[in-house]
Write the C-alpha cells for this entry.
Amino acid sequence: MNLRVSKTFEFETAHALWGYDGKCANIHGHSYQLTVTISGKVIEDINDPKYGMIIDFGDIKKVVKKEIVDVYDHCLLVRKNTPHEKYAEVETAFKKIWLTDFQPTCENMLIDMIQRLKESLPGHIELKYARLQETRSSYAEWLAEEN
C-alpha cells in the first residue's frame, strides 16, 4: 500500500531582494519551516528492520539536513551580479554567504530545495509536497501533481 509521510524542519536564513520595491530589499532574516511530504510503499517484509515504514524518519532527516538545513541555516542569501554581491567580499563581516543565481524569494528558495531533494531521496521514495513557511502567515507550496 502507498502512503505519505511528512516531516517538518526549522532553520534561520537571512536574505535581501535586489530591485524589490519594499522593505525586503534590505537584509533581514526569517525563522523558516520546511515541511516535506514523501510517498512510497509500506515495507511488508516482517524480516526487514524497517517493516511497517515507508522510510525511517531519521533517513528523511539525514537527507534534508545535508541538502537543505546545512546549506541554508544561518546563511545570508543575495543574488549575484547585483550590488548585493559586495557583501561576499567583506570576509570578516559574514562567514556564510551564498551568491545565488536566483532572486532569493521564498518561492525561488523552495524551487531550489525541491530540486535538491528530488536528486537526493532514495529511488523508491517520491517527493509529493513541500511547503516553505517564511512567516507565521506567509508560505510557498509545491505539489507534485501540479508539476
Q: What stands out?
A: The beta strands are 2-15, 28-41, 75-79, 97-100, 126-135, 138-143. The chain has a mean pLDDT of 94. The first strand starts at residue 2 and ends at 15.
